[in-house]
UniProtKB/TrEMBL annotation:
This is Cytochrome P450. The keyword Transport does not apply. Pfam families: p450 (PF00067). It comes from Letharia columbiana. Its cofactor is heme. Belongs to the cytochrome P450 family.
Length: 282
């Protein structure tokens, strides 16, 4: 909640820093500092020619500043944990409300896995409908629905200016340009009249083969999320194992169902369900 309010304040985020927020930040920094210190001590022991790879040590070689290294570690920790957790929650949130999709996914998993006990990348790559389910979940509920980029130099955007938004738009150096993947992914001119609905099958046809910048759950270009492939594989494996383990996954009896997109959502740095993801596993 605090992060959400600070985000909305934009350039004046510093005006809202309650004591519990500051204490939490100190706790996170102190936690990360321990690992930075250990890595640098290990680096001094082994020397620069060691064959052992350490991410923290490589960061320090590049930045030469333990504070910057610590901040990057915290960034990686948050990006690699909360985003995938939100993706998994939203996936099952949708599947238990769309049982035909859950049944089809279960059948695909059974067909691909057969009697195999070990789940491999090759298995996951054969699960085309699972990929459609993840694509559709990330379309409706991108883990990072809002983002901002700061212009490094003065430039022009081809559109966005003028009364109708079709004129070029000047962006001066240092100005932040915000974009909303959440809104973009629900545009009916891109995804059809049912853009607000959960329909994984839309990803099976050729219509979205060239969607390009109309689909940016991991953003794109040179700043494309480094953890994209890992996150999708991690989420895929978790979904497969959960569905294999529990033959019956369903909503609790009497639990209210509202149209997709009208449920309570919580926006901090990430997008999550305000009421959690309540399911019965049998």
């Amino acid at each position: 909640m605090i992060s959400s309010l600070r985000t909305r304040l934009q350039d004046f985020y510093w005006a809202y820093s309650p004591s519990r927020y500051k204490a939490a930040c100190r706790g996170v920094k102190d936690f990360a500092n321990v690992f930075v210190k250990q890595a640098l001590q290990e680096k001094n022991k082994t020397g620069p020619d060691s064959d052992r790879y350490a991410f923290i040590q490589d960061l320090y070689d590049e930045m030469q500043d333990p504070v910057l290294v610590r901040d990057q570690l915290v960034n990686v920790l948050l990006a690699g944990r909360d985003t995938t957790a939100c993706l998994l929650s939203w996936t099952f949130f949708l599947l238990v409300r769309h049982t035909s999709a859950l049944d089809r996914l279960r059948n695909e998993i059974r067909s691909v896995m057969g009697d195999d006990q070990e789940l491999t990348r090759n298995h996951v790559q054969k699960m085309s409908y699972l990929k459609c389910v993840l694509n559709e979940t990330l379309r409706l509920y991108p883990s990072v629905p809002i983002n901002v980029r700061i212009a490094q130099k003065t430039t022009w955007l081809p559109r966005g200016g003028g009364p109708d938004g079709d004129a070029p738009l000047l962006v001066r150096r240092g100005v932040g340009v915000g974009f909303l993947a959440y809104y973009l992914h629900r545009r009916k001119d891109l995804y059809g009249d049912d853009a607000d609905e959960f329909r994984p099958e839309r990803w099976e046809g050729p219509e979205l083969a060239n969607i390009g910048w109309g689909y940016i759950p991991f953003h794109g270009g040179p700043r494309l999320c480094l953890g994209k492939d890992f996150a999708l594989m991690e989420a895929s494996c978790a979904i497969v194992r959960i569905i294999q383990t529990f033959p019956d996954i369903r909503l609790p009896p009497g639990y209210p169902v509202v149209p997709t997109g009208q449920e309570k959502q919580a926006l901090t740095v990430f997008l999550s369900s305000a009421d959690g993801c309540k399911v019965l596993l049998d």
